[in-house]
Amino acid sequence: MKIAIIGNGILGLMTARAWLRSGINVEISIIGRQSRPGSATRAAAAMLNSFAELEYDSLSTPLDRFKFDLSRAATAAWPAVFEDICPTGGDVTFGFGTYMLNNSATDSLDDDNFNAVREFAAEFAEPCEDVDPRDIPNYHPDPRYRALRALLLKREGWVNPKQFLDALQAKLATNQRVTFIDTEVSKLDMGGGKIRGAELADGSRLEADAFVLANGANLSRLAGELGLPIQRVFYGIGMSIEMQSAENIHTHCVRTTNRGLACGVYSVPYGPDRTLIGASNYISPIPHDHAHVGSAYTLLKAAMDQINNKFYRANLISVNVGWRPTTSDTYPLIGKTSLENLWIIGGTKRDGFHLSPVICADLVTSMQGKSVDERYAQLAPERSLIRNLTREEAISKTVRHQINAAFQHDFSPARNRMLEQLERNIRTDLESLHDRVGAAEWGIPPELTDMYRYHHIPGTA
Question: Which CATH class is domain 94-158+234-327?
């Protein structure tokens, strides 16, 4: 059986690994530029988080609970993955133990999300403990932004994703059944209800029995050309900064809660004398190769203010930019399409790396015609948009996140009713937008407000 995997990011490589571990005799071709332009993984800290990214309303629907079940299963799977890919550590930096901060850099949304993480950890018996922030190794915030509470989530980890991708690819390359093709797919040739072949950018053609579309934020280009009813995938432009400093080495991940439409600010060990800080995020209908200056400023300032003020004398090694694949309803696309030999795995936003051991193995199981968790049907690539938020829930949440984001960007309201007026203005604008797109019985996800505002996602009006 010949398998063609389009995309050489974490989901493509882990799908190939899952096929090799299935015991079935297959030949696998993995198509993608070796440089991985726009790779979300290469710009990430690859935090292996299930609980640290939960918010107060994260588990409010059965589908969100399913995603969380997948996340917890991935947390349990990662130690064995490391043992397989980098058994002695070697050139791959990774570890477990995440400190979560509750500081005063923003408003009460942080408090609510911090409390929610503690409550969810208790509900699911997740190993964690309250710690004195002053006991966190190498935690030196500006006193005005110091945390008054902190948690240590003992099983939540991190890994240098560049090193891990290199190690994973190197291991796959030792298998004679795997071929890497350093180019891109220009077009998928469709006929007779299936994919007949892939036209490559170098002018060659690749034929296979089954195709897996796992090309990240670029998924919509190829899927759209096929005419399949697959929702649009956007570019979540993320930025991280790698620093060098022998005197400011972190032993664990240190991070805030999710806040202001993103995952807050974090710092992770990245090597013997390296630290990675992150991350910015904004949703775009088109790819961007470079980071915004304003995002870099905000990120560096937040890291120095809230994690370690000694970062100011570290060496700036690189600014990494990646495209987080974000769907039009924010949920992943996983499963078979209406074409008999095309499967899709993508739209995982910032969860793809962490979830990969589980969702890639389940995809391969389904490709073999075997049963997987029936809840995967909700994530079918050709589904209608999932709209789990009511109009009021979406508007209220967006107001909170936009105000929270403003405080992160040095917003200092006058000592009058400015804050109340700003909240009312944002709410009025959002209500008008919901009216304009016909969102009476459903709500726009906060991070996708501008995609609806500028008609990149159609409403129901």
Answer: alpha beta
Question: Which ranges in the chain are annotated with CATH 3.50.50.60?
Answer: 2-41+163-233+331-379
b/e per residue 282-309 (b: at least 16 CB within 10 A): bbbeeeeeebeeebeebbbbbbbbbbbb
Please identify which residue in the block is written with the tokens 């630290």: 275
Contacts of 384 (CB under 8 A, 6+ apart): none
Measured N-to-C along each axis, helices 391-408 and 109-123 cross at an angle, to the nearest 10 degrees, of 120
| Sign of the torsion formed by the C-alpha atoms of 41, 54, 413 and 312 | negative
Q: Does domain 2-41+163-233+331-379 have CATH number 3.90.226.10?
A: no
**Pair type for strands 210-213 and 342-346:** parallel
> Residue 229 forms beta bridges with which residues?
none
Nearest to 339 by CA among 228, 209, 456, 217: 228
Q: Tokens in use for 331?
A: 């949920």
List the structure tokens of 187. 């077009």
Please compute, for residue 20, the number of CA atoms within 13 A of its CA located in the half-sphere on the CB side: 20
Placement of tokens 């109340």 in the chain: 420
Q: The pTM is what?
A: 0.96
Residues with Cβ within 8 Å of 4's Cβ and at least 6 positions away in sequence, in order, are 28, 29, 31, 198, 206, 208, 210, 211, 212
Contact 28, 20 (CB under 8 A): yes
Give tens-digit pLDDT for 173-206: 999 999 999 999 999 999 999 999 999 999 999 9
Q: Scan for tokens 């530029």, then name that residue.
A: 33
Q: How many other CB atoms sit within 10 Å of the CB of residue 375?
A: 14
Q: Where are the alpha helices (DSSP H) in 180-286?
A: 219-225
Low-confidence ranges of the chain (pLDDT < 50): none
pLDDT computed for residue 45 by the predictor: 86
Which pLDDT value is given to residue 90? 75
User: Long-range contacts of range 424-428, CB-CB < 8 Å, 24 or more positions apart?
Assistant: 426/398, 426/399, 426/402, 427/395, 427/399
